Amino acid sequence: MRQWASVGKLEWYAFLATAPILWIALNYLLFEEEIFRDPQIWLLSIPLICLPGLVAWYLHCLLNRRLRQAFGTLDQT
């Protein structure tokens, strides 16, 4: 994989540690107690939440890396 398209291990670990908590919380906010009674909710909602979230997170990581490479010499003021 190209260097600019790679995501570090720490970023993956952070994503995998926090994403399931956010997915469960979002499902609970959307469906309340029904998530404990209807397994079809999990089968449909988790992929619909996971895939856009994963794509958005990955693009964010790539953009963040590109910006750090492009403007790495700038100091924070």
Task: Please outline the helices and strands.
Elements: H1 9-31, H2 39-70
Helix pairs in contact: 1-2
Average pLDDT = 89
Shape: elongated
Label the structural class. Answer: mainly alpha
Low-confidence stretches: none
Our Rg estimate from Cα atoms comes to: 17 Å
The main pleated sheet reads as: none
Describe this structure in words.
The chain has 77 residues and is mostly helical. The chain has one domain (7-70). It has helices at 9-31, 39-70. α1 runs antiparallel to α2. It is elongated and about 55 Å long. The model has no long low-confidence stretch (mean pLDDT 89).
How would you summarize this macromolecular structure in one to three sentences?
It contains 2 helices and no strands.
Features:
77 residues; mainly alpha; elongated
